[in-house]
Amino acid sequence: MKFVNYATYVQDKGKVNASRAEHVAYADALRKHDRLVMGGPLLDDDGHARGVLLIYQVASQQEAETLVQSDPFVLQGAIADYRLAEWAVLSRNVDVESLAAKLVTADRHAPSKEPHASGATPVGPDAHSARLYVNYAKYVSDHSRILRARPAHRSYAQAIRAKGALIIAGPFADDSGALLIYQAKSKDEAMALISEDPYQAEGVYEATALSEWRLFGLNAGLIERR
């Protein structure tokens, strides 16, 4: 089972910075023990880390909650809020090599003195390279509307996946929303992918939160695992 942890930092960046090194070590250990699929910071429009997205591979929601509560970011008060949801991944045709190429490494995008794992704040990417963007979407409560629009949405998802614009996506297990990870050259380009989605046109998306996502850790062996 995959669980998404979508977390935002507190305003006190001192707490975030103070707990970052321990969080990095913790995230690295989870990846090593096949508990963390991938993770990295969520960026605001100015390129500053405003939170973190972590995707766990666990046997139960209780186990996922334990991983969240054991994270130094949580233990040391660096997280203002987090949302934990089971993720039913549907788009499994992932180009792992392409995804791995997006990893931010110390010698590519981040100064060597900075930690290069899921909590770090990196330097901006190459101007012409495609970046990763996360759409954390909430659905309307009218389930009939979701069902009506779902075939068109899935056809659209297949089309943009074939073009390399959709990396991995799927709804939350309770059908309250979805997580979609796009590849785009700008936030405007990623926003266009949402605007053209039938779920947007048919009013299925009650709210969408689009953020650039810097991938600082990846356990490729867990991508295809249910």
TrEMBL record:
Transmembrane segments: none annotated. Gene3D superfamilies: Dimeric alpha+beta barrel. Residues 1-87, 132-214 form the YCII-related domain. Pfam families: YCII (PF03795). InterPro entries: Dimeric_a/b-barrel, Sec-metab_biosynth-assoc, YCII. It comes from the Bacteria. PANTHER family: PROTEIN YCII. Belongs to the YciI family. This is YCII-related domain-containing protein. It comes from Cupriavidus yeoncheonensis. The lineage of its organism: Bacteria, Pseudomonadati, Pseudomonadota, Betaproteobacteria, Burkholderiales.
